[in-house]
Structure formats: C-alpha cells, structure tokens
Amino acid sequence: QVQLVESGGGLVQAGGSLRLSCAASGRTISSLHMGWFRQAPGKEREFVAVISRVSSTYYANSVKCRFTISRDNAKNTVYLQMNSLRPDETAVYYCAASETVPVITTAKYFAYWGQGTQVTVSS
Asked: Which residues lie across from 96 on neighbouring strands?
C-alpha cells in the first residue's frame, strides 16, 4: 500500500506562487509514476502534471511553462511548483501514484491518492 500526504496549499493572489508537496510512504517513489490532478467545485478532476518512474515529465497545456513537477527520492517526496497562478486554478489539488499507468495523464489509472490540499487564488 502507498500512502500519500499533500501539503503546501493555501490562499495566494493572482500571479503568485505556491509549492505543493506530496510525501509518500509504503513504497519508494522511484518505483512509481507520480502525478498531480486538481478538481474545482462542480468540475471533473483534471490532469495537471506527472513525473514517470524514469523522471519523464508531462504537463497539461494550460500549466506548461508555469508549473514544474519534481521528485526528491531521498525524501520520498514529489513537488509541484506553481507560478503565475490564476483565479481559475482554484481547486483541490491531489497527489496520485501508481506502479503502472496505461495512459499517464488519466486519473482513473492511478491506484493511490492523497486527501488533497486546497489552493485558492484570489483576483
């Protein structure tokens, strides 16, 4: 079993930055695909970014060049650095993990999920 705990969410003004952390336990993240998804009220959960087991990274088009996903294997933690945040990016951000993911940008293929952390971007 893999347990994921997110932190780092909060309230930020538009244009500001936040760094989310996802601490994993039960498995080493180097053996997992690790992703970030978000869900705004009344909307479906959407893909944000993922880092594969071999550290390839993929981003949603809407966050490219503003968000960066990274991993620290020594700390068994994945990060999401978010810059130039916009009000429409207000959502609960979830960390996800899986050993195998047929489609790396699709939430349903991730087996493990954290409880989420709220990010609120004010205008």
From this structure: 35, 113
